[in-house]
Amino acid sequence: MEAAELPPLSGRILEHIFQHLSAFQLARARLTCRQWNEVITGSPQLVAKFRLSLERFFCGGETERDFMLENVKTCYSTADYGASHLIQVEHVWVTVGPNIRHLIIHDCWLDLSKVGYMLRYLPNLEELTFTPYYLESDMIKDVKIDYRMDKLATLTIGSTDRIDEVLDLFKQICSNLVVLRVCGKKHDCNEEKLLNLIFASRDTLQEISLKKYNFEDEFLTKISSMDRLELKRLSLKQCYIESEDDIFNLSLAQPLLEHLDIQSAQLRSNEVLVKIAQNLPYLRSLKINLNKLKGSLLDDSLNCMPALEHLKLLSERPKRIDISKFQNSNLAKLSLSGITLTMNTLEGITNNLPKLKTLTVECSEHKSPLPQSVLQSLESLKLKQVTNLETTIYLTKSTWNLKHLQVISCDLSGKLLQSICQQCPLLETVHLESTYYVCDSDVQLLCRTLKRLRSLSLVDCRLVSDVTVENVIVHCLKLEYLRIEYCRKVEKNRRWYQTEMKPRFKISIGPECWYKDS
């Protein structure tokens, strides 16, 4: 008996279905859905899930370029360019430029003058990620900058040899930045250029994220005294800050800060931290370095931050702290790096931090196990370079609600992994990296046990082979992403990638040079 032929779904119903799919899932749906092109191109929200790759536009011939432009339909809002050279082709930018809202330029050999010329054709650009690996700027002085990019709100600038010229270019064309992220090179950064760019957008700027900057003594002072600048997020990563007074003065000048990352600052006294906390009543995220902080008690300072939702405590040298009297009904994420909590603190976490859902423990040694009450309440757990792991994670017959697990550079045995999988049936994401004792049979049991698994990462797992990939394809029916990189027993000529076993999910295998030939 033949099955009844079902009527085709309407475009409106398909659009609602497609809204819940990822870009990878949408691309797979194209193989079976005849209305795919019509539904996708007719919905800006669905088109926004895809990126337009510009590499072929500039590398191909003129005939191929014109054909591709004809089929682009000027509907993409996100564009990606990562080729070796940026060729100036005016009619390409005229066609696709007005619709681009987000442009990503990375790993390119660029002439800054061509960038200045190109940006003229992107009047509606809202976000720009600019991370070339080499930049020439000799001709930029010949480019006439007679345009503005008033809609550009988010600017990310990666480390480059000509970062001062880049900052100067964007200072001329941007005045409404909301988010500014800059990665310097420590030895070749003119802070005046950076200050000028911040000053140009001081009326709208809410977030500044700086990385690898060696500040002069007055840099943060100038930020603090800048009129009309009201920041909500400030992040200083790998930026050497000697004076804790600069951070205190900054907290006085920016009372609206909600996110403060000062892992580079050398705080020496708990009293200063208390004063900083009192100056920032809206603080929701704090990342600090306790390397030079005297004493082990942080209760007074942390209790001054009732709105705190994310706390990261860092120390380059092993440090034991006591926050057993720290009570916060909002804290959902706690990260500890080089920090060991006292037993009193561990036992009180469940009552003192009732909303804690994410815990990260790095570079530490806990002689006592994490309490079961804590593990049962977590949704995400990350363990990195944790010694005596089997002591830290003491398994019982109780069930945990864990959904995301990361284990990196730990002595994770196959037996412990199997026990965790059986105790955490709700796991959706598992990331294992440099766990040298995990083998194919352990991963096979993981695949059979975790029915909800959506993402699996196996990085530098030396005992994992192609057998694992085959087991994942067969047993992980809900998997969307598999990352299997730097696993030396995976063969270059992978039989699992043949037509009959081709994965239905996205897979990343890393550089070919790491895999042996079959």
UniProtKB/TrEMBL annotation:
It holds the Pfam family F-box-like. Residues 3-50 form the F-box domain. Keywords: Ubl conjugation pathway. GO terms for cellular component: SCF ubiquitin ligase complex. The keyword Metal-binding does not apply. SMART domains: FBOX, LRR_CC. This is F-box domain-containing protein. It comes from Culex quinquefasciatus. The gene is 6032969.
